[in-house]
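Input record (one chain):
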Amino acid sequence: MTETTNSQAFIETLEQLEELLDNCDADIDYDTISDILTIEFENHSKIIINYQSANGQLWLAARSGGFHYDYDEGAGRWKNDRNGVEFFDQLSELATEQAGEGIILKPE
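The corresponding structure, as predicted from the sequence alone:
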């Protein structure tokens, strides 16, 4: 797996996520600056997602803590480096927790 593969996978993930956020019914704002995506909920809590090129990981910071994801090229998905949970699954859980309402941010 190469840095280029991981970097490209991160860019594609950000694009998917922006589309999901645009189509989400919940009151969620987001902003992307220099490949750092900040999601802000109505209660002003935030989730921040970025790419760490030094180790090729996607990082997510939420109210409940920080999470790191490795890209599984065979599966075409980012997976939590501690428990193997898929990025979009965990993001949906964390967004639901922070927003106080059911939020699904997962591509079909």
